[in-house]
Amino acid sequence: MMSWITRKFGFTFLLVSFVLPLFSLPSSKKLKEIKLLPRSEIFFTQMENCYSLEIPDVEPGKVQIDLPELPLGTKFISSKKEEYLDEDGLRGTRISIWFTFSYSGNTRIPPLLARINGKTMYFIFEPTYVYENPALIAPLVEIEFDGMEMPKKDKKSGQRLLQLRAGEKLIFTVSIRYAIQVLDFKWKIPKDSIFTESERFEFAKGDEKITEFTTESKKIAKFQWQILKEGIYSLPEVSIGAISYSGLKKQLSLPQNIVVSVSGKKPEGQNGLEKADENVFEAAFVQPFQEDGQKEASSISREECEKLAKSIKRTFLDKAFRRHFAVFAGGEICSVPEEKILGQSFTGGQKVKITERAGKWSFIECKEFSGWTKNDNIIEIK
Prior knowledge:
It contains four helices and 27 strands. It is mainly beta.
């Protein structure tokens, strides 16, 4: 009889000894090291984002949680408590909590209050940065100057002022952020300048497409710009057609708040800009980038351009506002009205706007290009 009781209670004791270690309470020091970790690498606004907490050696029935008061813009969605089994076969409790965030930036959620076997504990939320919802983000064009820092923004005007000397070479790189693909990329030659595209990067060619969200910027092109006359200038006209994460096409340009002030003297406190020759008009000029397939000569005859110009009449508004138009017959477009400056050849047949005249030269503009050309290359619309 005694042996039967001994065997019975002995078996019971062994069973209890085996079960209890499965859910023995971890030490307080070990619990304090546990944090609520983000379930995904990136959190977005206006989307459900999950934090996860794993408490080893504790069964779900022994854990109760109490959410803290959440900051403005953070909304609790739901929570889930479940048992998990780790790689070593040890059991524990996993708590998942879902939130939505209205604003981008660093998360600031107070610690989570939990009661484990009647003991109160606080668990910290791992600091996480919340990004704008990709569907709401518009592509952003960025510019970086070689050898100089981006100037500080003026508090009153909001502009960033660059100070240069006439003829100094300004080198800058254009990049784009939050775009999945570039559809088109083009630029116009600014007035009174030598402006060249020294390098075009792969992403600008449109063959590469981003499939996952990234905060990294993609380089588009590198430019060299020499302004030859004193004055105040905006950045050159660069146009980028890109697709946003929402699937919409956006037409982008360089930042409008950057202004370049050009004087005859070298500005103090700026290094890294190359000196131009004393006669900037005789300086070496690099041929601008030409896309494959671009023709150097006009594909339409001058006679056809003359007929086209005769068929177009100046409107009443053109006459009232003294706007002058012409048909471009083909030829070179230059950055400055000088014979020694190499230009870029374009085909004819476009209607162009005449914005300025200088002797035998006219500054013309259209969708494809802008710059100085000889008067012989245009047929004015009367």
